[in-house]
Structure formats: structure tokens, C-alpha cells
């Protein structure tokens, strides 16, 4: 039997304290920060010390009030399904810093082994849309937030992703937002010092860095971190080059050493962290697994893996660590199985066209699973639809739109995805900003989903591991 180390859960105090964060004494520094990757287009800047910040008395009641205010302001929040968790576990922080006519304030924070959750307010002396017309939309005005520990980014590969944050205008001068960031790769303990920082806010440079210290830790969110550390050499057949003269692809077996580092189960979500490395090259780059896996529980049910955006290896034999979120389908999972997959050399076509007035309906995408389209609607400003996965279905549903004659409608839009982590419902919102696309959307009568017939699960390469 495999030995699995389990990090004991800390007892829950009756006062429901989460992480209580206070400003670090003046003079604390975050030193030796260097640009780590060409992912960043602009130079990284972090303040050397906290400077002058405002600090209010920590109050759970006040935190609840702020959380309620936010969700009343944005009733369509993609985090509305986690509202009760924010209400239960958030603590009031009320730390702020102002520079260049803009004030950034941390309103509330809730942290556990898996996630760093923060609500915040940004106030501008000038009307925000007057700074730049682009900032008339909240999602465009919302800045990229960096969390730094020991001079390094927390979950570096997560930097710059927009699916872990959202914002809404409270007024022409005030932007409110939520950040929900996975942090399971970091070792977060009592006394840990973190820095919240930005390169720019509303296109302006400035010093809005706020250093915070995790003054007291409790796992009132019932988080558990399971240390797995189980590795396997995964072998798979990969196309590695093409015979241009004969137009024939070339294949070979490649080996990737894949390690399951840990699994976090918490009220805010579930995470699996992996590390991989390979010496075999595919098109002159290291072979990889990355997010090309599905999860199955001990009862044989496939688990939906979401937010599959990973850091890719760029050098042979270089370890790369990634964290992926999954939706647990029950609270008593005893073990999991990670199964790598490949896409065989087949063309995946679309399903039959479905009348949007005849929903809900189930569409089989492969021998491994189906998608249930629950609803579909078009308003003056958006296209919005919801679906659930049933079976082994990696990635999001790729849905195409058609008019009454069956001709495809190509619509340009800003797309926002969010998931109900309580029941597994995916919702996709296409925000329509141009009149021509708004008019085109009104002609949508049918939809279809791209199939996954080329999907092949590598059952013989699976990794089984226990959580209890």
C-alpha cells in the first residue's frame, strides 16, 4: 500500500477567525524582486516598505456588510454561488494606500490552504472613464493583481489570468472587485508575509503595494491539504515531426515523469498540484502532460477539471509545476485516479444542430461522455447559456451558433466563463459591445457542440492515489 502523508487539519476555533491580517510594522521590506519571465511586458515594481496605510479594527460583522454590499451591487457575479463562503470566512482588513490620484483598499480577505480570496475597492480622484475611454468597462479597468511571497509570485503561472477576478463600478469614481486566487503551490503558514502589488492601475504607474502578515491562522473553511508526492513515468505516442516530402506525420513514444504533489480540499474549491519533466522532444520542445488528464473518484465517477491553464516546460529535464482546480462531486472522496489522454489523428466535427427552443437536451460528444445544455438566451447586450458535463470531458464546451437556414453565425464578443462549484453548472456569457454583433445574435436559432471523438484515455498510464 502506498504511503501518503496527510497534513492534519487544524481545529476550528469557535470565533470563526480566518487569517487575520495586519499591516507589517513600518520598515519591513520585500527585497530582490527580479523579472522572472518574459510573460511580463512591463517592468516589475514593488515598494520597499509599507509606507503610510490606514488600518481599522478587524471586525467580522463589518466584513459581512462589505460582502453583502458587493453582491447586491453585482447580482450576476460569477462568485454568487460562493457568496455564503465569503460571508462565513472573510475578515475585515480595511488597509489602503493612495498614489497618483488613485487609492487602492483591501476590504476583506479569507485565506486557506487552497485559495487567497480578497474583496477590494479602487477610488480615483478623476472620473475613471475620463482617464481612458477603455476604462468605461469594468472588466477593462480592473487591474492585474500580483501576490508576492519571499520575493516570488504566488502561483506564478496564474499571473495575469482574468478568470480569477471580476469587478463592477460603484460610481464613476469607484471600482469594486473580487480576487479568488489559487495558492496551493505556496507554503502559507502563520506569520507568512505577503505583498499585494500592481504594475499599473487605470494605466498609471504608482506605489499601491500593501504588505500584510498572516497574524493568526485558522482553517475555519475546513480546508485539508493532502501531501501525495506520487510519481510515474508516463509513456505516450506523440507526433513529433512531419515528412514534408510524403506529407506523413512521424510518431514516437515519449516519456514524461509526472508527479502528483498535493491535493487541497476546501470550502472555496478543490485543487490538484502536479510537477512534470521530460527529456524527450516534440517539435523541438519537451514532451508534456500538463493539463491533458481527467480525474476519476473511487466510485468511478469522472470529476470536472476546470481552469486548465498551465505553465509549459521550455527546457528538457526542467521541472514545471502547475495547479488545476476540480469540482468534487461528493464530500467523502477517499481516492482519486489521474488518467492522461491524447487526441488521436482524427477530425472532430460538430454535433447535430439543436433548436435553442428545445432545451434542455443532452449531446453525446464521445464514448466517454456527454454535455447537457440546460438553457440558452439572447438579450440586447449578451448571449448567455449554461451546461453540465457528464463523463470524461476535458476543457470547455465549444459551441457554434447558426441561423434559421443552418448557416453559421460568427460573433465577436468578450467572453466570461464561470462555474457553480456546488452543482457543476458551467455558464458562458458573450458580452456584445458592437451593434452589428448585437443584431447578428438576434438571428441565432440553433447551436451545435464540437465532438471529442479523437479523445483517447490512456488507462494503462493512470496514477491512483489515496486521500485518506
Automatic annotation (TrEMBL):
<dbReference type="Pfam" id="PF13786">
    <property type="entry name" value="DUF4179"/>
</dbReference>
<dbReference type="Pfam" id="PF18705">
    <property type="entry name" value="DUF5643"/>
</dbReference>
<keyword id="KW-0472">Membrane</keyword>
<feature type="domain" description="DUF5643">
    <location>
        <begin position="257"/>
        <end position="360"/>
    </location>
</feature>
<protein>
    <submittedName>
        <fullName>DUF4179 domain-containing protein</fullName>
    </submittedName>
</protein>
<dbReference type="InterPro" id="IPR040680">
    <property type="entry name" value="DUF5643"/>
</dbReference>
<keyword id="KW-0812">Transmembrane</keyword>
<feature type="domain" description="DUF4179">
    <location>
        <begin position="36"/>
        <end position="123"/>
    </location>
</feature>
<dbReference type="InterPro" id="IPR025436">
    <property type="entry name" value="DUF4179"/>
</dbReference>
<feature type="transmembrane region" description="Helical">
    <location>
        <begin position="44"/>
        <end position="64"/>
    </location>
</feature>
<keyword id="KW-1133">Transmembrane helix</keyword>
Amino acid at each position: 500500500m502506498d504511503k501518503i502523508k496527510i497534513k492534519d487539519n487544524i481545529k476550528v476555533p469557535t470565533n470563526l477567525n480566518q487569517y487575520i491580517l495586519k499591516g507589517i510594522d513600518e520598515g519591513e521590506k520585500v527585497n530582490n524582486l527580479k523579472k522572472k519571465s518574459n510573460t511580463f511586458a512591463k517592468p516589475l515594481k514593488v515598494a520597499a516598505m509599507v509606507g503610510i496605510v490606514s488600518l481599522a479594527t478587524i471586525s467580522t460583522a463589518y466584513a459581512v456588510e462589505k460582502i453583502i454590499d458587493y453582491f447586491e451591487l453585482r447580482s450576476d457575479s460569477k462568485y454568487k454561488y460562493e457568496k455564503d463562503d465569503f460571508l462565513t470566512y472573510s475578515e475585515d482588513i480595511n488597509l489602503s494606500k493612495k498614489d497618483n490620484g488613485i487609492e487602492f483598499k483591501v476590504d476583506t480577505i479569507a485565506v486557506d490552504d487552497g485559495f487567497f480570496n480578497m474583496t477590494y475597492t479602487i477610488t480615483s480622484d478623476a472620473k475613471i472613464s475620463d482617464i481612458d475611454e477603455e476604462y468605461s468597462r469594468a472588466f477593462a479597468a480592473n487591474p492585474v493583481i500580483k501576490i508576492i511571497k519571499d520575493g516570488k509570485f504566488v502561483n506564478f503561472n496564474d499571473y495575469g489570468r482574468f478568470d480569477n477576478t471580476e469587478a463592477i463600478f460603484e460610481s464613476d469614481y469607484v471600482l469594486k472587485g473580487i480576487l479568488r486566487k489559487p495558492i496551493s503551490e505556496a507554503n502559507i503558514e502563520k506569520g507568512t508575509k505577503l505583498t499585494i502589488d500592481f504594475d499599473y492601475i487605470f494605466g498609471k504607474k504608482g506605489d499601491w503595494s500593501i504588505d500584510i502578515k498572516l497574524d493568526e491562522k485558522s482553517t475555519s473553511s475546513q480546508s485539508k491539504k493532502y501531501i501525495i508526492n506520487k510519481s510515474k513515468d508516463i509513456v505516450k505516442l506523440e507526433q513529433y515531426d512531419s515528412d514534408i516530402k510524403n506529407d506523413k506525420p512521424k510518431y514516437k513514444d515519449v516519456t514524461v515523469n509526472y508527479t502528483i504533489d498535493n491535493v487541497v480540499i476546501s470550502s472555496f474549491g478543490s485543487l490538484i498540484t502536479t510537477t512534470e519533466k521530460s527529456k524527450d522532444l516534440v517539435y523541438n520542445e519537451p514532451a508534456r502532460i500538463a493539463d491533458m488528464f481527467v480525474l476519476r473518484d473511487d466510485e468511478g465517477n469522472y470529476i470536472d477539471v476546470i481552469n486548465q491553464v498551465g505553465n509549459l516546460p521550455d527546457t528538457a529535464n526542467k521541472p514545471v509545476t502547475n495547479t488545476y482546480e476540480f469540482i468534487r462531486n461528493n464530500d467523502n472522496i477517499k481516492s482519486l485516479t489521474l488518467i492522461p489522454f491524447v487526441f488521436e489523428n482524427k477530425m472532430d466535427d460538430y454535433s447535430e444542430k439543436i433548436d435553442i427552443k428545445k432545451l434542455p437536451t443532452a449531446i453525446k460528444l464521445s464514448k466517454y461522455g456527454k454535455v447537457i445544455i440546460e438553457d440558452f438566451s439572447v438579450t440586447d447586450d449578451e448571449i448567455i447559456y449554461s451546461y453540465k458535463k457528464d463523463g470524461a470531458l476535458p476543457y470547455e464546451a465549444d459551441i457554434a451558433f447558426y441561423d434559421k437556414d443552418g448557416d453559421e453565425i460568427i460573433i465577436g464578443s468578450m467572453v466570461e466563463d464561470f462555474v457553480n462549484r456546488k452543482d457543476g453548472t458551467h455558464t458562458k456569457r458573450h458580452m456584445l459591445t458592437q451593434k452589428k454583433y448585437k443584431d447578428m445574435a438576434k438571428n441565432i436559432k440553433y447551436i451545435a457542440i464540437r465532438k471529442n471523438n479523437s479523445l483517447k484515455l490512456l488507462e494503462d498510464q493512470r496514477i491512483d492515489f489515496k486521500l485518506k
